[in-house]
Amino acid sequence: MEAGGDTAAPVPGGAEDLEDTQFPSEETREGGGVHPVPLDPEGEGLEETGSKDKDQPPSPSPPPQSEAPSSTSRLWSPAAPENSPTRSPESSSGGQGGDPSDEEWRSQRKHVFVLSEAGKPIYSRYGSVEALSATMGVMTALVSFVQSAGDTIRAIYAEDHKLVFLQQGPLLLVAMSRTSQSAAQLRGELLAVHAQIVSTLTRASVARIFAHKQNYDLRRLLAGSERTLDRLLDSVEQDPGALLLGAVRCVPLARPLRDALGALLRRCTAPGLALSVLAVGGRLITAAQERNVLAECRLDPADLQLLLDWVGAPAFAAGEAWAPVCLPCFNPDGFFYAYVARLDAMPVCLLLLGTQREAFHAMAACRRLVEDGMHALGAMRVLGEAAGFSNASSASAPAYSVQAVGAPGLRHFLYKPLDIPDHHRQLPQFTSPELEAPYSREEERQRLSDLYHRLHARLHNTSRPLRLIYHVAEKETLLAWVTSKFELYTCLSPLVTKAGAILVVTKLLRWVKKEEDRLFIRYPPKYSTPPAPSTDQAAHNGLFTGL
Amino acid sequence: MRKPDSKIVLLGDMNVGKTSLLQRYMERRFPDTVSTVGGAFYLKQWRSYNISIWDTAGREQFHGLGSMYCRGAAAIILTYDVNHPQSLVELEDRFLGLTDTASKDCLFAIVGNKVDLTEEGALAGQEKEKCSPDTDAGDCVSPRVPKQVQLEDAVALYKKILKYKMLDEQDVPAAEQMCFETSAKTGYNVDLLFETLFDLVVPMILQQRAERPSHTVDISSQKPPKRTRSGCCA
Q: Biased composition, Pro residues: where in the chain (chain A) (predicted)?
């Protein structure tokens, strides 16, 4: 992007309006995505940036102790080993380091921290939070300094680093990034991290805890959840899409089967059941909402995505789980009770969300109904086959190869339809093929993710949004395009010509059109059949009651 | 529908190895550690009975749910880590209270896991056929760390629990029988633990069935529970 290789082409219809502004000579800067390239100035004017930008070190080198109002350190050391015999490999969130002077720690592209208002560390993506008290003290100082002037700090731009601050109740979230993500994207990520925390504790109980005891060590309650946060943040870099586009990824499935599964979910109810979701590998097969419980309250896609991430946790791999979970967008202060089980020893996962604390056995009975129904439909076999194709990195995620499109030169894409029936808005979706070679290694995936984020930031720039970007990078060429009908990001071979790229995109759009019934949930059922269930097949019931 | 006949609950601080113990028993393997979310339900066929086993999360976050998982339990396995004395203390401080919802004649087992990490455990692993499980080979010297919690501490806790539950020592299995030291990693004593409990729980199922017509759960009764069953144990 800093190569200037993009132009607005505000004509949604014609791809030939692409303008050639690529500067191959600058491509080398693109390579690692981590070079100290000057940032886009976008959005900067909107941010409250302290005048002290320049004083901030580009990475959180430990300031002189006196500067940090760190009343925190004394609280740390004694408690940890005693109270939790538990702070062992699984709970420490990023290896040994954590000392801000540690080279490896400093070399991370992106840090995410969660701390309490009192400056007490709660979570750090890398390193151990204990070592970071001083650093976190500085962050608290920055926030309260700006606050004392009656303002709110939102971001600091310091050379190649962006620091984004987000205050949520008594929690302060900070992202510090050298990636090409925009401040808005980083803020989105912080919101997702916050939602994750709320989903395990509820906003009300977090507020209550800190109202009661300001220097409470929230790690006690979050212990064990750090891995979930790690996975969330990793997914942004390794498999971009869901958070970037604010949409869920669906399992490609023939429409009749998906409809039948939706009908099955709506038929199988239990007392207090609010939502049933079938998923595999973090992707949605279908979902059904119970009208009487979630009446008129649409499930927010962010909540659905959170649930999809949540049920992907290794803790749910065995047995039938029963656990409370909060849906932050639906009601950040209350818990649902979730029944989670893998069906038939398959990666297919059933989530039943209810309001009754003691309903485990009713949910378990409901699961057996679903399971039997799926056997009757032959769905297990089909889903098993779907899960069969996929590379090692996501062994349980059914997916398709980009080859399926039949457009040579196309390496990867993200496609989010926008031309969806009105009642469909509740379920933003996107589709993308499996990341295959050359995007099989971590660095390559990061590079692609960076490119997608960069293009996304340009398309959605608040002051100067673009419709179309043709971008030649060092190792690939990208084309991003947003119209009233879709939002599309394509990654093409670096050797593609502009005419070739247009051809590929045309082919891709035609393919998506042809496959859309399979790729997306075109007509998501809205509600379950009401309780006092009629046992007859009421396949379309949900649709009609919803309208 | 497979209706469980009886219920066993695993309780204990996080990271003491509750999930690992259960996985070792159910699936004969020692998987990577995962942090349990809420509680996980397993069903075990034992003879002709379905015994449900609840593996609960030790995380404080889920503490409020503990009493729900324990409701009506026939046996509760209180698990600690022999290398962390605090985990035994937690059993009394945090977890014992959760068992109030369990069945009146609920059995308690106290299990010290991770003996493979102690010098005694290493020995027991090698020579477990020679030593009887209860033998405390504490005087052997080896490079491993000495065990931090002795079996006697667990026995003392067991007696405390009986007092707390106002149970008579005569009516329940002896402390020696109900305190175990295990290793989910090597499998040491794991089968013994579960199968001892199953054998103890089965007569309770039978008794329950016999009493069923008149037997409804009376949660309001605050009388000290009376043990009618005795000497059922192998």
A: 57-66
